């Protein structure tokens, strides 16, 4: 009994270490993410990496974006890599005859994708997943202009401390974080953070959404002077369609 008991205690003690921690990474040297861990090899060796400079898109008669959105409960966190909003699930995107469900959205400052070489002060990524856990991401660029009410709500609720989550008092409808004109570019890409997994269906809205200078500044402050934007990656023969 004694031996069994101590074995059990040992197992319990070891349990927290059984899960191998992912390598720590940051935005100081994103070009070296692939060297931090074998798990991150695609960051260095992948040929379908994001973000990209979107240019010379090929006309492909893309269908209208099939989004079903409504106001939902949400929580916001600055996880040290991004400001992220986790929503109650239910918003959907129909793409390629499959249903993708919105999991979360988050922000990059400045933008990660470029459009015709132009970098925007902020880019939102709306991350959807289908039943096979394949991802589709809608990217939205922000420009300086009138204040965005939803961004205001998010920034008001954002906890000052990293990794502290706050529930939003009002339900969040992402409709006002999307442009009215929903024309988009489409290309195949990856996560823009380690492990840089590929097979992500990227849809980047052509029209930007406005945010006030103060709102854009608030994201900059929250995400640090260095920002959280991976440099653009080579296309390697990929096509962007529109
Ligand atoms: Zn992102």
From TrEMBL:
Residues 23-242 form the Alpha-carbonic anhydrase domain. It catalyses: hydrogencarbonate + H(+) = CO2 + H2O. Its EC number is 4.2.1.1. It comes from the Bacteria. CDD domains: alpha_CA_prokaryotic_like (cd03124). Coiled coil: none annotated. Residues 1-20 form the signal peptide. It is an enzyme of class 4 (lyase). The keyword Zinc applies. Its cofactor is Zn(2+). One of its GO terms (molecular function) is zinc ion binding. Keywords: Lyase, Metal-binding, Signal, Zinc. Reversible hydration of carbon dioxide. Belongs to the alpha-carbonic anhydrase family. This is Carbonic anhydrase. It comes from Pantoea wallisii.
